[in-house]
Design goal:
The chain is α+β, with helices and mostly antiparallel strands. 22% of the residues lie in helices and 29% in strands. The protein has three domains: 53 residues, Roll (Structural Genomics Hypothetical 15.5 Kd Protein In mrcA-pckA Intergenic Region, Chain A), CATH 3.10.290.10; 87 residues, 2-Layer Sandwich (Alpha-Beta Plaits); 81 residues, Alpha-L RNA-binding motif (Alpha-Beta Plaits, 2-Layer Sandwich), CATH 3.30.70. The protein contains seven helices and 17 strands. The strands form four sheets. Strands 7, 8, 9, 10, 13, 14, 15, 16 and 17 form a nine-stranded mixed beta sheet that branches. A four-stranded antiparallel beta sheet has the order 3-2-5-6. The structure holds uracil.
């Protein structure tokens, strides 16, 4: 019956495989088949008896796209499988059945905001240097930091022969008895151990590091080891490239 039929892009979006716009793109780029035939026409109607597949895989067999924000605790590795059999961030998402991957990496001893998803397209986009996704860190460092010390980080410092992009950096606190300082630093690059190396370069070795924010996603309501699914609107903003933090502290 015709009333049971739905627009193809709606069916794909409802299966959780893409946003409505993403589904349209899948169709127009020839990745969608209906009853074994490629369909590139938007608005094609399909019913319950039509076989819809994307990249050759029937939509009912494809995994729903899921997005989680984890407050990574210390002592877990940011990978899906660790050769040394250490705990991984993926082990922490105990009630997630989909095979998700971390977007980028936090060191074993770094805590904080880490995104995990099975949406490879979005993950690649977010990790692309051109996208300049801001990551805000709070670092506890050795020594009483001075403005003169942190100033070079605002211009960029050379690490492994390459200058870092200008960072936003400020001293937020000193602990005179313990001889330590708290530094906030925001970068958009994602080089290995970047924050630790940048701070070490200006004579402020990192004792503890937390990522407080990834794009606009912060740790409010999440204790270390806890995670939550992203809200529909948050996923939408990430897909649209709208990474700004609206709740600026
Ligand atoms: N920079 C670091 O040095 N370590 C991290 O885990 C993240 C950024």
């Amino acid at each position: 019956m015709d009333e049971e039929k739905e627009r193809l892009q709606k069916v794909i979006a409802q299966a959780g495989l893409a946003s409505r716009r993403g589904a349209e793109e899948l169709i127009t780029t020839g990745r969608v088949e209906v009853n074994q035939e490629i369909v590139r026409t938007l608005g094609t109607k399909v019913g319950p008896h039509d076989h819809v597949s994307v990249d050759g895989v029937p939509i009912e067999e494809r995994e729903k796209l899921v997005y989680y924000l984890l407050n990574k605790p210390r002592g877990v590795v940011t990978t899906n499988h660790d050769e040394k059999n250490r705990h991984t961030v993926v082990d922490l998402l105990s009630d997630v059945s989909q095979r998700v991957y971390p977007v980028g990496r936090l060191d074993y001893d770094t805590t904080g905001a880490l995104l995990l998803t099975n949406d490879g397209t979005l993950a690649n986009e977010l990790m692309h240097p051109k996208k300049r996704v801001n990551k805000a860190y709070l670092a506890k460092v050795k020594g009483l930091a001075t403005e003169e010390q942190i100033q070079p980080l605002r211009q960029g410092v050379v690490i492994d022969g390459r200058k870092t992009a200008p960072a936003k950096v400020a001293i937020s606190r000193w602990d005179h008895t313990k001889n330590t300082s708290m530094i906030t630093i925001t970068i958009h690059e994602g080089r290995n151990h970047q924050v630790k190396e940048m701070l070490a370069k200006v004579g402020l070795p990192v004792i503890k590091l937390t990522r407080q924010r990834y794009a606009f996603l912060d740790l409010v309501g999440l204790q270390p080891g806890e995670y939550r699914a992203l809200k529909h609107d948050e996923v939408k903003r990430l897909k649209e490239g709208n990474y700004r933090n609206l709740r600026r502290k």
